[in-house]
Design goal:
The protein has 13 helices and 13 strands. The protein has helices at about 10-20, 35-45, 55-60, 75-80, 95-110, 125-135, 160, 165-180, 200, 275, 280-295, 305-320, 330; strands at about 1-5, 25-30, 50, 65, 85-90, 115, 140-150, 185-195, 210-215, 220-225, 235-240, 245-250, 325.
Length: about 325
C-alpha cells in the first residue's frame, strides 16, 4: 500500500515515521506547500518526496494523510476527494462551521471515506473507561472532569491558524466525551484567562480556559485547558457514576506530583508532549486508517462527528467572549 502525506511539520514528521513502520504500508510519499521541506523530511526518514500535493496525486496513492495547517484542511480534503483517494485528516476539518459543513455534505454525497484524527478514541485508557460505562459497571453518570494541559505554549505564529484554545485543545475533550458517553452536549458556560505571554490576548485567544457542559441526559462535565502546565503534558479524564468510577491518564508518567507526604506513583519522567502521551494511540489510529483506505473498514471518526465537537467548541468560545451561557442549538442556527 502506498500512502501519501501532506504537511511536513512536527506532527507530519511524526505521522510519516509511524506510517513507514506499519507492516501494511510499502511506500510513504510526502508533500508540502514548501517542496524543499518535503524533500528534507524524505531524506531524514528515508521515504519518498513528491514535492507538492498536486504531484503526489499524480503518483496514485492508495490513501492520503493530511497534517498541514488547520486553515488548509478543508481545501486539501476536497482535493483528495477530487482525486478519489481515501483521506485521513488531523482535526479539525476546518476552522469554522461553514467550511466543515461543506466537507460533511460532500462526503455524505459520495463514496470516498474520510477519517478525522481524534486519536484519544484509540487510547487504551479511554477505551477501557468507555467499555466500563457501556457495560453498566459505573451505573449512571453524574460527573465528568476532563483536562488538556500543555507543558509549554506554542509560538505566536501558530495562533493565526489554530482557531483558539477551545478549537485546538478543548475539541479533543469534546469529542471524547461524546464518544465515551454516547450523549450530546446541549449547553455550555465557559471562561478564559491570560496570565502568560501577551500574544494570546493580542490574537483574541486565551492561554487558559474552563467550561461547564450539560449533556442531554443532565450529566455535567467540566473541561479545562492551559498552555502553561509546568509539571508536564497532562491529559486526564474522570468518569464518575452512581456505582463506580474510572480515571483515565493516571499512569506512572502522569505529571501529578502529590502534595501528600510519602505518596507517589510516578516511576518515570512525566510526559513532555502530546506525541509522547498518545504515541500508541497514534499508531493504532493510523493502522485503522490503512484498513479504511484498503476498503476493509468504515471510517471510525467521520467529518459529521467532528462537526458535533466543533459545535461545542464554537459554543464555548462564544460563551467565554460574551460571558453568557450558550446552547448548541444557538450555534447550529
Amino acid at each position: 500500500m502506498k500512502i501519501g502525506l501532506i504537511g511536513t511539520g512536527r506532527i507530519g514528521a511524526f505521522h510519516a515515521g509511524t506510517l513507514k513502520s506499519l507492516p501494511g504500508v510499502g511506500r510513504v510519499v510526502v508533500a508540502d506547500a514548501d517542496p524543499a521541506r518535503a524533500g528534507a523530511l524524505a531524506d531524514t526518514l528515508g521515504v519518498e518526496s513528491a514535492g507538492t500535493p498536486e504531484r503526489l496525486y499524480a503518483d496514485g496513492p492508495d490513501g492520503v494523510v493530511i497534517t498541514a495547517a488547520t486553515s488548509a484542511h478543508a481545501e486539501l480534503i476536497h482535493q483528495a476527494l477530487d482525486a478519489g483517494v481515501p483521506v485521513f485528516c488531523e482535526k479539525p476539518v476546518a476552522l469554522d462551521v461553514p467550511g466543515t459543513l461543506g466537507v460533511v455534505e460532500r462526503v455524505r454525497a459520495g463514496s470516498v471515506p474520510v477519517q478525522i484524527g481524534f486519536q484519544r478514541r484509540f487510547d487504551q485508557g479511554y477505551r477501557a473507561a468507555r467499555a466500563a460505562l457501556r457495560g453498566g459497571e459505573l451505573g449512571w453518570l453524574h460527573t465528568l472532569r476532563a483536562c488538556t494541559s500543555d507543558r509549554t505554549p506554542p509560538p505566536a505564529a501558530f495562533l493565526a491558524t489554530s482557531g483558539g484554545l477551545f478549537h485546538d485543545c478543548g475539541i479533543h475533550d469534546f469529542d471524547i466525551l461524546r464518544w465515551l458517553t454516547g450523549r450530546e452536549v446541549v449547553g455550555v458556560y465557559a471562561q478564559g484567562a491570560n496570565r502568560g505571554a501577551p500574544y494570546f490576548s493580542e490574537a483574541g485567544d486565551v492561554d487558559t480556559c474552563a467550561a461547564l457542559l450539560r449533556f442531554d441526559d443532565d450529566t455535567l462535565a467540566t473541561v479545562t485547558a492551559t498552555r502553561y502546565n509546568g509539571a508536564g503534558h497532562d491529559v486526564r479524564l474522570e468518569v464518575c457514576g452512581s456505582k463506580g468510577a474510572r480515571f483515565v491518564g493516571l499512569d506512572d508518567r502522569a505529571p501529578m506530583p502529590s502534595a501528600q507526604p510519602g505518596l507517589s506513583w510516578r516511576q518515570a519522567a512525566p510526559y513532555a508532549t502530546y506525541m509522547e502521551r498518545f504515541h500508541d494511540a497514534y499508531v493504532a489510529e493510523l493502522t485503522a486508517f490503512t484498513e479504511v483506505a484498503a476498503g476493509r473498514a468504515q471510517s471510525p471518526c467521520s467529518p459529521a462527528e467532528a462537526l458535533e465537537a466543533l459545535y461545542v467548541a464554537e459554543a464555548c468560545d462564544r460563551s467565554r467572549r460574551t460571558g453568557e451561557p450558550v446552547t448548541i442549538a444557538d450555534v447550529r442556527g
